[in-house]
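Friendly challenge for the regulars: who can give me the structure tokens for this chain first? No prize, just bragging rights.
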Amino acid sequence: MLNPSKTDCITILSAASELTDDAILPLDHGRLGLSRNGMQAAAAFLIERACFQRHQEGDGQYAVGALSLQGRLRLEQLANG
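First reply, four minutes later:
Bragging rights claimed.
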């Protein structure tokens, strides 16, 4: 069971919230200011919970699309509570 930090989840969700529907964001821990393990745990956690309209995964690298309704709700929940 993954247990990512709230801050890591908010960082990824916030970055994805800026995307248009057809864009995709390669998740780079350095660019996002996260640790590699923290980013991977948060990305896997959020992907498992269908927070993105689409995602790609390969060789331990993640890329995500715009937020799904679930992702928008989760971002609001994490940011406000």
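The longest strand covers residues 55-58. Strands lie at 25-27, 55-58, 61-64. Your move, everyone else.
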